[in-house]
Write a structure and sequence with these properties.
Structural class: alpha/beta
CATH class of the largest domain: Alpha Beta
Distance between the termini: 52 Å
Order of helices and strands: HHEEHHEHEHEEEEEHEHHEHEHE
Strand order of the largest sheet: 5-4-3-10-11-13-12
CATH topology of the largest domain: Rossmann fold
Low-confidence stretches: none
CATH superfamily of the largest domain: Vaccinia Virus protein VP39
Largest sheet: 7 strands, mixed
Length: 282
Amino acid sequence: MKEQIKKLLRMVAHSLIGLSVKTRAGRYLLNQMLGAAMERVREVSHGNLKLRLAAPNSLCDWRASTFSTKEPETLEWIDSIPENSVLWDVGANIGLYSVYAAKKRGCLVWAFEPSVFNLELLARNIYENDLTGKICIVPLALSDSLGASKMRMTTTEWGGALSTFGQDFGWDGAAIRQVFEFQTVGLSMEDAMQRLAIPQPDYIKMDVDGLEHFILKGGVSVLRGIEGMLIEVNDDFYEQAEQCRKLLSESGLILKEKRHSDIIGNSTAGFQNCYNQIWIRA
């Protein structure tokens, strides 16, 4: 019933937009509505820290409202990072954790995010929190090698996730249900350092919905230089889980713990066995 109502509302919205674009007044009103949506900001408090987060749609609004509860283990991990560390946020999305790390710990953050639908919001969140001197956006996909390939996406929503680069499977290892694609350039972690002069990270946070093992494979020398890592792994996706364990262990890291919140644990969308793994230098 809920999905039927949503479908009906989408049809009504599309019809209204179709009518609006036929007149000058309608086009002006539509432009004003889109502008107002993109400028909408939610203030979020976590502990004694306040953040300003862009919330142009319901998904971004949900990300803001669940900031403290969706991944508390990620926030705690960031809290443990030494001040002024270099952090790579791989799969930054709209930048919630990049902003938190830069503002709370003074980290110098390199935010890797290839989604064209998330990049504007990532930039807005950095600007809204006065962190342009602390966070550098890298609008490229990380992979195991340098080259062009397709970015396949399951949604075109602002703040969307579950995309893939250079592969045809998603976060669970199954064929991805794409609705949009474009070709872009990807590179390995080693390429990022050698070709783009991005500094060696002290810590890495990685959440790329199923491609983690490919990215780790292309960054063995980088992994050997880090102090710790938080990486999302799906225990039900055996190839991903086993390859991540192997590559991180061979880099001299040990698994300290793996956790997820009740939001993830109680998910009805199949994410119950997805965990944030925390690895530390042995």
